[in-house]
Design brief:
Uridine Diphospho-n-acetylenolpyruvylglucosamine Reductase, domain 3, 3 domains, 6-stranded mixed β-sheet, tRNA processing, tRNA_Ile_lys_synt, TilS/TtcA_N
Amino acid sequence: MVKPEKLQQRFNLYVKNKNWFTPKQTVVIGVSAGVDSMSLLNLMMNLPAENKTQIVVAHVNHQLREVSDEEEQYVKTFCDNHGLTLKVAHWDIENHPQNGVEESARKFRYDFFLEVLKKYHGDILITAHHENDQSETVLMRLIRGTFINHLSGIKSVRDFHGYQLVRPLLHFKKQELKQYALDNAIIWYEDETNQDLAITRNRMRHQLIPLIEKENPQGVAHIADFADQVELMQKQNEYLIKQIIKQIDDEKRYDLNQFLSYPEYIQQGIIDLILNETVPNQFNLSLIKQIMQLLNNRTKPQGQVQLAHNFVIKKQYNYFFVEKIVKKQISGLKNECFVVTLNQWYSGNHFKWMLTDKSDYHDELNKREATIYLSDEQFPITVQPTKNDDKVTLKDGGHQMAKRVFINGKVPIKDRKQSQTLVDSSGKILAILGYRESVFSADVQKQKYVLIIK
């Protein structure tokens, strides 16, 4: 096991080689009272003079657990005893959402960190993400499916609203930090939710990672090294792809014919870089695939794919481009025709709906769920206004027209006029959204998708 002084020495050398910190800088450290952040705080406090900074501790009391107040008091006492500036925020219980608590908590936390940086004229935000966090992140992205550029995982340094966000522990193991805390008599609190196997990251941590370490004790370190190699490859590819984009770029309108002259693996790199410069970190393989299918479909001279934050990528004859539009233009209401983006919620007539390739969106509150099997050739999937003679496929192989679906369901005339039909690239009807879905037989040659009506 790594001795405490050796870990401090390694940390000091690592920071010095990276040239991250100077005495003139003020750093904000996110401290939760857990072993990772308490170890980070102590390591930062014991840096040599040439790298020692002014420290501001930022603590969030999420009020999610019984010991939250006790943890807050411990951090206050620690900072008082060591003469550290502390700023605390409380995430009021009435602001806790019913769903997506983890992501909402993260947003609250980082919004608060930004406030602290501004208030204390800080230069750098520091968080305690370590080597195990890196490995878990890479594995989750790999399993869920993501474009390879994003397999670089957690970046050690990145921009954060004009400040720097630094994670100096990404090459230090969780167990090393824990032993450092034990050997230095550092008190910390365990978050019992870290044992909840209903959370994906916890399953990675407690089930998958131990198997990897059993196979190879250096497995976690190798995954972290892999993330570094991917990041280096990303920088190399980005440099080369930017040279190609310059050749097809006409004031952010991209020449489609020139684009299509490149092989698909270059096209993918072009699309990923264009999108990432507009709405960073919002894309996955499924989205890239849909955009590629739209741009390469010679029979559809126009079309669009919805992105995040009210952006769309549009194809118009000989050009394509990214555009920000008002939300009502892409809501999916009334007589709109548009290309469907996987894993994106749309507003329908008295309901929300989504076509997903993920299996963990099941919710007992869903009004309807239908399994759909699709091949790559059936994309892009589009939505169009429902016509009375639209036909869904029944279990026995027969068909039922939309008009009969509406009559049987006693659907009001005004709702029929706003109804929409989901179709594949050949015009095959997949569903009359919210009212009836075609029945699909299981097909191992195709990928399984789920249509959810909420």
